[in-house]
Amino acid sequence: MMRAVATAALAALSLAAPAKATDQQSFEQVQRGRYLTTMGDCVACHTAPGGKPFAGGLTIATPFGNLLSPNITPDAATGIGAFSDDQFVNAVQNGIGSRGQRLYPALPYPYYHKMNRTDVLAIRAYLNTLDPVSNAVEPNQLPFPFNIRMSLLFWNLINFDRTPLTDDPDQSPQWNRGRYIVEGPAHCGACHTPKTWLGGDDNSQALKGAVLQGWFAPDITPDARKGIGGWSEDELVAYLKTGVIARSSASGPMAEVVVNSTSKLADADLRAVAIYLKGLKPGTSQSSRPPSADDPHMLAGKAIYKDSCAACHREEGDGIANLFPRLKGSSLVQSDDPTTLIRMVLEGSRAAATDARPTGAAMPSFAWRFSDGQVADLVTYIRNGWGNSASSVSASAVKDVRGGNGPDPVKAGQVR
Amino acid sequence: MSNYALTRRYFLGSTTLTFLFGGVTAAGARTISGQPPWTAFTANPPTPELGNGLLFFIPSEFNTVDAIVARLIPADELGPGAREAGCATFIDRQLAGSFGTFQRFYMQPPFANGTPQQGPQSANIPHVIYRTGLAALDAYCRATYAGKAFIALEAAQQDAVLQAMEKGQAKFEGAVPAQQFFAMLLQNTREGFFADPLYGGNRDMIGWKLVGFPGTRYDYRDHVSKHNQPYPLPPVSIFGRPDWQVKG
Amino acid sequence: MARKLPSKDVVIIGLGWTGAILANELADAGLDVVAIERGPWRDTAESFNVGYAPDELRFAIRLDLFLRPAQETLTFRNNLNQTALPIRQFGSFLPGDGVGGAGVHWNGQNWRYHPTDFRLRSHLTERYGAAAIPDDLTIQDWGVTYDELEPFFDRFEKIAGISGKAGNLKGAIQPGGNPFEGPRSDEYPLPPMQMTYAPTLFAEAARSVGYHPFPTPSANASAAYTNPLGLSMAPCTYCGFCERFGCANYSKASPQVNVLPVLMRKSNFEARTDCEVLKINLDGSGKRATGVTYVDTSGEEWEQPGDLVICCAFSLFNVRMLLLSGIGKPYDPATNEGVVGRNYSYQTNSSVQMFFDNKTFNPFIASGALGQSADDFNGDNFDHTGLGFIGGAGMNCVPTNGRPIQTRPVPPGTPNWGSAWKKATKESYSSAFSMTSQGSSYTTRGNYIDLDPTYKDRFGRPLMRMTFDFPDNDIRMSSYVNDKLLTIAKAMNPRQIVANKTGRPYSVVPYSSTHNVGGAIMGADPKTSVLNKYLQSWDVPNVFVMGASAYPQNAGYNPTGTVGALAYWAAHAIRTQYLKNPGPLVQA
Q: B-chain residues within 8 Å CB-CB of A44?
């Protein structure tokens, strides 16, 4: 009995050993790892509400069921303290767990596969400097058959592009750096690239906008109408740095990305991202057939806009710099998928608050005020006013977004 | 299917809202730090007073109040009045709410008579003022006009009764002086005529249309410098205006 | 028994303008700060949603954003011979509640008090001789000068994004501004707002009779603005829903818009809402505060220890907090001894109403501080020799709204109801407007605040008792300036002019002003003041008291601009002097 205890203690000691290895890591490597951890916004997924940073346990809802994010503090028993460097790299870049099990690509390893090993190990070095937190998490909460990890082998075959990223000599170093950030650690496509039926990235539509968790992450290719075609490099950099520029405010999930990640990145890296995104091939805009200005839905929407929205966003949709986003010419507004726009009208929104732009202006919720039809008419008007052009929105689309959330709307017609 | 991938925390940003010291029971305090709290759908909107039923009055009381408001703000050549605006319904709804019991006011004893400058000192809450006042009004009318109730009187007679109440000449039985009742009736009728229609009065925004108040419009930048020119747009209520509905 | 919490460096009572300013300045100095606020959290999108913010019944009549008298009120009498009775419904003044305090529901007129206001007794004595000051007035100097406060006026104006036109830049008189104002180190951060019709007529008329009108300094932003903390304001939309309302579009300066988003980002600050402080606790010596005791919504009592306690409640409630906590000697009008509650004063207002034919003023196109003012008869800007009074009033044409439950002028003699009332209401709604004179209010021995012997609040603590009436001096002053308003009115040639002069006795029923000041006044002498020139308690040096309770008497201006300046002044003294050597900053 005594012997068993002694063995266990010894085992614990040896397990704890890799965490000590951080002492040997260089200052530069740890600083670089911290920067890359910020760039990857690892803390966002690896922290539960109210929990310790990086200690995991956040529920990640997928159409197949729930996953819980693992503990990535250097705790030997419940975190990554016992991982060898190779095990860590294999998990992050190949989706292979420390016990050889296949990880679900909620961990965006297809992106991290594009990173170089030095950078991945720098992240490891930084994580090793954190306080170990004991927090046992069973990531896999999926129901059968998705809980069978072997299915991931098949998934990987289809969805996992293992082509290494090599610099394109025909492009500038900035462009190459931007591509590395976007396709690697920042994993922009995880949100902005549409998914195939299997949940993998549809690379033919890379960065052309996708719905995720009830938000539409807009097209970030240089499409003139729906994308960033009209944005200058400076605007892109300022947006990522501050979250709030005249033409747009980061809100919803992007607000958090800006607050936790992009606002803390070096200006040179943000500039590289902007150069890379501006150099992408624009998506082919679907020709939408905008409703005519005298369409009854447009007229109702215009009246609602004038009475409810113009005080902030202004009659011509110009907005107010730093506070109220410009709607005229907005790519988000003109996206093929109006989900985010509908959502903002119904539930309201808070813009990113950063050191540069600390206001964090909030859009009020209007779910209580407008019927589904009125939101549809309003959004249709905004999508087609002042030279904007996008498809009409139906009341049923609003109903879908509203779901059971929020108070029931009062039918305005009932109050005379 | 397209949702399968990364998801992010999205609830309170980095605001921390904690109840003080979990483990200690019944701590009602809220501690806020990190950033101003914000949650989706959070709003504190008013509840529209829809529906036809009465919430406080019995029908005979309602009919009397309806007849009174019709004299206080009559329908005439300038347009509809307080009856058409639904002011009696407005008063019924107000009495059913926190106003009806003066819930927000300091109503601790002792109640003493003071100077006019010391403000209202009556222990009467609106429930009592209306219920007792209406009963006393009925008794007063029947005693003065050969058994007729207020609603059975000619318009000129009704005006005479109201004037007598206003001036304190009508002596009411019970704890509610006629003047106190009249003052509250007049105040509530005006409120109902000019308050947002969601509260049951100002139907079709007729009170606002009478004076030309554009209601809840929140932006006059395009008219601020147009001195001495009437404002051209129709009023808007909290729940909109007819143009918010699709035509045809 | 109160349960004890971990100690903080600074405990702030109330999270309005002064609470937010002090918290932000002291958190910047690295201190661990908690603000305890008895009302709810309030913020723009949720609390002042543009869809329901413009609701006159809810906010202006039922007073949704204000303190409920059921929660706390005060008793009132005009003089010592009366028995005070509770103010059961607030009327002549409306105390705020909740995060942002009065900074949420104010109109936004933002003034600097005049240099002579700060040394009132000395100035008047120098100019007219001591005999010119009526015997019954207890006016005195503030102990701080305009020149000392100037950088802090400037700071607050930049934080709050004030719109206006300087009239005196470093001594040089500027065209278009107020030529009577004290010298400013800088222009206003924003230009004046666009002018509506009524103030435009007022300005023309005032000029025609030889006065010097200028745009009223306004905390309603004339243009988009970003303040020194990086916080943004949007341009005012002239919606006419300022006073009694929160602003839905970040246009009216408030703690929510201009300070709190930055303060909340600081990890060494936390706000505790829906918690009402019962008293400031003192140690056995009575010379040192140990923290505060407060009660939460569940009725649970908590003790929050702290090294520094800063009272940032509304002016009246600061005075009551000191009385309930036993800090400073209560004032006794019989003996003229004691200080806490002494020198309560108010604002002496009168107005002139004008009815026109064939004019359309669109009164709903307005903002709380949009208008024109003239200072020719304010303070000591005019020679008082032989006038029989001291003090003065600003002449203001600031039509704040056209909300029809409240703003519905009719000519005198109109019946209160019926078709004649309806006709007059319709005709006058858009063709009438008012000018006001906002006058100084000078203190007397009999106007004061103490604790009521009879009435209690919901926790069983005595209500405070206000004893107040207008001194004869102020009635004479107000009448004089009202006559000047009449000359301006006549120059506009309206169909009918109605003068509404202030008379005695003062009544708590009709709304007049929420500029309740004094009771915990600052000064140079602990025998006649509660606070030293840094707003520090003479008796308990680790207690500071912000707000207009520090005003020894009131001037003819809205108090907020000076409240803001004093808050920055005190914060600066705490940061640069007190923290290095905690103790009295002025030796008694």
A: 8-9
